[in-house]
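User: Please run a holo structure prediction.
Assistant: Happy to. Please share the sequence and the ligand.
User: Here you go; the ligand is flavin-adenine dinucleotide.
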Amino acid sequence: MQVPAQFQYEKATSVEHALGLLGKYGPESRVVAGGHSLIPMMKLRLAQPQALIDINEVEELTRISVEEHMLRIGAMVRHAELLSSAVAGEHFPIFHDAEKLIADPVVRNRGTIGGSLCQADPSEDLSAVFAAIRGEAVIQGGEGQRVVPIREFFTGPYETVVADGELLVAVRVPIRSSASAYQKVERRAGDWAVAAAGAELRLDGDTVAEAGIGLTAVGAANFHVPEAEEFLVGGPATAERFARAGEIAAEHCQPVADQRGPVDYKRHLAATLTARALGAALARWHGRHQEA
Amino acid sequence: MEINVTVNGTVYQREVEPRLLLVHFLRDELRLTGTHWGCDTSNCGTCVVWLDEVPVKSCTVLAVMADGHRVRTVEGLADGAGLDPVQEGFRQCHGLQCGFCTPGMMMTARWLLDNNPDPSEEDIREAVSGQLCRCTGYENIVRSVRWAAEHEAAQEEVQA
Ligand SMILES: Cc1cc2nc3c(=O)[nH]c(=O)nc-3n(C[C@H](O)[C@H](O)[C@H](O)COP(=O)(O)OP(=O)(O)OC[C@H]3O[C@@H](n4cnc5c(N)ncnc54)[C@H](O)[C@@H]3O)c2cc1C
Ligand code: FES
Ligand code: FES
């Protein structure tokens, strides 16, 4: 039987309250959101916080909204809620593609968007999703709020710019005309990715005007591949160029061999899934612009 | 710390350690052993119960997190008048063999039918995709849930 080490427990009722509690208990305290990464780590004693600050009752963190041309997703939004959100799916179908494949439906009832990003596991799907669509993290501390692009949010495996005493309160994404998609290969239903790729495209006529590529579980720096994005922008949106962008993406990642597969296989997946995600995003772009 | 949890409609007040997991609270403190405990790693789904309106894996929820909330376990499925159609479906269609996965499967199935009264085979398989059964090969679980869906629809027609 796996039992966490002892800790003190506090339920926060607001962001201010949570920040106060984090300040009171100091650096050995941790926020718990869905707990679906933290509690398993505590059971294995890989994490032994002295105090847990529960933010599940912080109502203000639970909303998905559109404000000033930004889609804003509160840190406590559950995976299941993002999956079923019409407004999120309408602007960024990549969320639906990815959320359908994150864990299983019961885990998705509990795990949160903020927890996923703060966990910063190299296999976390949403890290690559938000990197592809250039999301921004809204972080709050004693001094007020700051906004950090997701592409600068991760400082290493399991590490982010969120400092002791700070809270991720939301992720926001500028709403603009674009199309997006996510492709993942997993060993079985509900498993973490062997590899996955997210893509976003905006076209100007037949020319790629904006491209975003996010990669999961293959050691891409900060979960995205600027070299492949730069290659695409300014050129035609063709299958050949998407395949080449995939090759560039594969060259710029550093997968590690593990029980999910060897390095060359993961590199191959990175290339193939990048090209497929770009293809799927392109199809959505055309679908949308033919309707209009 | 002291917690108040409403389980299957009854309020229970207990003094617990913050590190106590919900599954052990239900089984060891409340003696509601219908909820099973298997992998301990949020993978098998035998520990699934409802927390408020949704199924969760209770081996990965702290009992203190349920303070002030409602929990529904397999013991709360039947309403006194008889078995829930989901339970009856598992009985009719041989939806269990050893029965270890069954409480979790039924809790998820109940939630599925509440949200989607006429699920396809694919919907059912997707809903329980985070739950393992080592006996049935899932075929009869799918049939059991379909049985429940069809009989619930029929019941509603009779009542209407
Ligand atoms: C069986 C299983 C399968 C899974 N499969 C996948 C998968 O395929 N793909 C995938 O991407 N993920 C998967 N996950 C992980 C899951 O998506 C999330 O990583 C997990 O639920 C984390 O979210 P949480 O809300 O549970 O975070 P918690 O476990 O509560 O927290 C995780 C970390 O983030 C910190 N934290 C949480 N919220 C905040 C905040 N607002 N501000 C500051 N710090 C915060 C915590 O202190 C902790 O360090 C799986 C999980 C399980 C259990
Ligand atoms: S015991 Fe909870 S998922 Fe296996
Ligand atoms: S009936 Fe034995 S595990 Fe499902």
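Residues B 37-40, 42-47, 57, 59 surround FE2/S2 (inorganic) cluster (ligand 2) (CB under 6 Å).
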